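thread: overnight batch results

M.L. [08:02]
morning all. the overnight job finished for the chain we discussed friday. pasting input first so we're all looking at the same thing
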Amino acid sequence: MTGPRVVVIGAGIVGTSLADELTGRGWTDVTVLDRGPLPATGGSSSHAPGLVFATNPSETLSRFAQYTVDKFRGLAEASDRLCFNPVGGLEVATTEARMTDLHRKAGWARAWGVSARIVDAAECARLHPLLDPATVLGGLHTPTDGLADALACVDIQRRRAEAAGARFVGDTRVRAIVTAGDRVTGVETTDGIHPADVVVSCAGFWGVEIGAMVDLRVPLVAMGHQYVETTTVDPLRGSVDPRVGKAAATLPILRHQDADLYYRQHGDRIGIGYYGHRAMPVDMDRLYRDTREQPMPSMLPFTPTDFAPAWTESIRVLPSLASASVADGFNGIFSFTPDGGPVLGPHPGLDGFWVAEAVWVTQSAGVARTMAHWMIDGSPDLCVAGCDIARFSTRETAPDHVTAMSARAFDEVYDIIHPREQRSIQRDLTVSPLHERHRARAAVFVTSHDWERPAWFEANTALPQIDTASAASAHRDDFSTRHWSPIVLAEAAATRAGVGLFDMTSLMRVQVSGTGAVSFLAPILTRDPDRAVGTVIYALMLDPSGGVLSDVTVARTAAESFQIGINGPLDLARLRTLARVARRDGADVEVREITSETACLGVWGPAALALVDPLSEAALGPDDLGFYRTVRTRIADVSVLAMRVSYVGEFGWELYVAADDAVTLADELTTAGASLGAVWAGRGALDTLRIEKGYRSWGTDMTAMHSPDEAGLAFAVAKNHDFAGRAAMSQRPVRRRLHTLVADDPGTLLLGREPVTGPDGTVGHVTSAAFSPIVHRTIAYAWGAPELRVGDRVHVDHLATTATFTVSPTTTVDPENARLKGRTA
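M.L. [08:03]
and the structure it wrote out:
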């Protein structure tokens, strides 16, 4: 097996690792091109400091890093060169806030299987003797982290790939990507055309230029980052690693994130990296002029003024540096993206073109392995939803947004980011037609992609449940209640007691139409869409391995038209790609996003019928419009598509209207609902209600790494319907399950990603959690061993404490579905 003809653009650490992974799996017809000389091509890999840290809030990025450590250690064992040196990592805290954050990181490490422990100030100084223990409160020690010599790793992997048949070509510039129809056929360079069935851009911060050749917006910005090397530090003279190479060191990597600093040893000197300076976006049109006096085009001239605060702080925490000085420095260029993550995956509109950009040495080998799996097997070996290039909306890839948000990502590299914290820039990009009405009710907004969503309404402060909610949360820790309000619980309780009005407009939806719509949808859904007009189904989309790619609601609104509620830009790109391929094969099918031209209001609660029925031309009661049914009617003289579905576990509907009619409908419902105690409620209440009901949230509770059976979604898979991924799904063993947990202590609150230890010692992790105003306890979903049973006790580590939870039935509130069916008094 030689596989297809593959051309990789970029011979840095990512492109070379990918060539090694592809040839190792049998795709040996691989050509790697680079504009620079081999082996040090002049990109970011050529000057990277080589820090490899496995602890990350993202399980995927942590897995990438863990594989990178394992592979690079293996390279070192197979060579006389020091590719990787496991000196360990030490993150120190100089503030109580940072210490709290380190406890949170220790939880991530445990959840993802990384060895880590919290240590006191004295232990920090023992691990790193240059550190003044009086300046720190403690730290997080990860003994398996270490230093990679990026160029040594590049060289060994390149030689291994070449031995398997790959070709590496340096000093050649890509001029164009050659295409035929909607697929790639080659790469045109300064030395001719290289035929290709598959092209992968691993060009680093040149990736924007390569993407533009195929009309693909690659959302990254090249940014300067300061790095210096000191003169000799006297105490290091006796602790020099005698081995040769950039990974040689005896001291652990030290990160002082309260000051945006990190330190690594270079013989008897210290290297210092600094993220505290102003953002330095690179003007790519001037790159070669600005770097002509530098050793390589990825190194900008050093700016000493920007580094001055870093030097002062470094002497404070590492007093031995006072006898040294800055010997040399540069502003190294790296790639930054709007959300700080890598950019991976296939071009949604061009078959055969892939990208793997904005990847640092830390995750390089892991990314390469996943890309190889994805390209060869048709699906990645890890969840890449947070890395997929298609995760961004069109507005999020606009140049102004990418520049502003990437600069923010640089500024926040070492910041403490609360999971509920919201950005302060690039706001109000896309808003619901009801936005001004929400502002009048003092909504507190959160963002999802480019949309503004109400989290809660300060106008609801006077709700009667507010006192109970405040009392229940009074003794919780400050970190857990940050960026949150007990009004969330009041709105949730008011919905259960009466009726809640929810603006669901930002939930992305598409229209799939054409004579081939049914045959197009049937093989990609786990339930047959060929049902009567007016039927709604809840279904899954699976990948080739049987993992849950997404969950969707599919409403048949006409014989040849469906409205589908999807999970964001990833689903949109997926459906558009499948429709493009189907049309190429002769199908009549179109996929059109209709989110902005429509609006959606959720009306749910035991008083929902009393509110809507007098305003509706069609009867919408539980015996008139059954669950998972939809009908077109007029409500308050507005044309509405009423869909009998509920994400909160209460009787009611999603009401879809033209965007221009949304305010009219909302105002009529608000006025009519006043006597019924109707409240406008936000996303916080919605999340609380759906967790009480046992409803999952794709991307948070389950991903493509989980089968429907594991995620508790087997009910959404039809027994007599054929679909993509069915065979693989049926053969997947159940290795873990998503369990519902309820806290024993009413004062316990979780934020997500906390490690969970079962009775047998196995470790899982929390996905979603919310305090329930109904059961007066925190309810959480958590991955754990499939053997866990209702009534079992588990332990959850939250910050510096451990809480006990009891495994409970999936549905905590209304397991009989009486409320959902409208059978409550």
